[in-house]
Amino acid sequence: MKQSTLLGHSKLKVNRIGLGCMGMSEFYGSFNENESIATLHKAIELGVNFFDTADMYGWGANEQLLGKAFKGRWDEVILATKFAVMRGPKGEFLGLNGKPEYIRQACDKSLQNLGVETIDLYYMHRQDPKVAIEEIVGAMSELVKQGKVKHLGLSEVNADTLRRAHAVHPITALQTEYSLWSREPENEIFDVCKELGISFVAYSPLGRGFLTGAIKSRENLEQGDFRLSNPRFTDEAIKENLKFVEVIDQIAQSKGVTKAQVALAWVLSQNDEIAAIPGTRKVHRLEENLGAFQVELTITDLDIIHKSMPTVTMGERY
Question: How do residues 105-114 score in pLDDT, each as one tens digit?
Fold first, then answer.
């Protein structure tokens, strides 16, 4: 299996299994800064060079964490961060903002948090419905001209929006949730990305941990974990969605690998250009995820998955 790819038409060569850093500062229960930094350093040691954060993760704390961890090592790192989701001083969500003035301010704040002069890949996290995509990408392109950003990305947009954005300024990567229980990008997005030469980056490729088999009931989640308010993690949904895990487990047992490795290998097998950014705070999970490169899914395996996997997931993604 190919282990690296170029993002879009850029010269950014990334390991196809990167690291999503959101959970190191918020959302998935307790976290420890020293453990997170150790995982980030181990990731570089193991060949991971693609790291994903956002200004809203820990409302700045996640970017600051990465700035601390990667100080003096930025030449080994390709970093993506995002803007648009506003947070208040206590972390309260204040909605979306795609106004050009805000984009400039958000970028400057991210540069300050990270302690860098340039961001490799700058994503619009979600589109502010009050601002046209042409205006948003136009403002983002000014950041490229100023040298504050190298390449542009979008997250969770439809095919038409992606085309319109790309017409304003080349889009290097599109990030959207994609896994065995979230397959919406297959409908149109993959084709448009291929046509325009835009890389697809799959976030939550392990279904927020569910597809690893680690979550069998709500009792497996810590108090304060945002998944407790997610429609796919109600008692009823967990019970129904375990059918996905059963299929993955069947393949994993036949190969002597883990369910996480099968789920990740499946994502990467969809085409050679997809990159995935599973999130973890722990070194042993990082090592397990990278083991997906060694999993060869045969045509028979893929056929079993295709025919056995439920066609409907209980519960919306958000």
Answer: 999 999 999 9
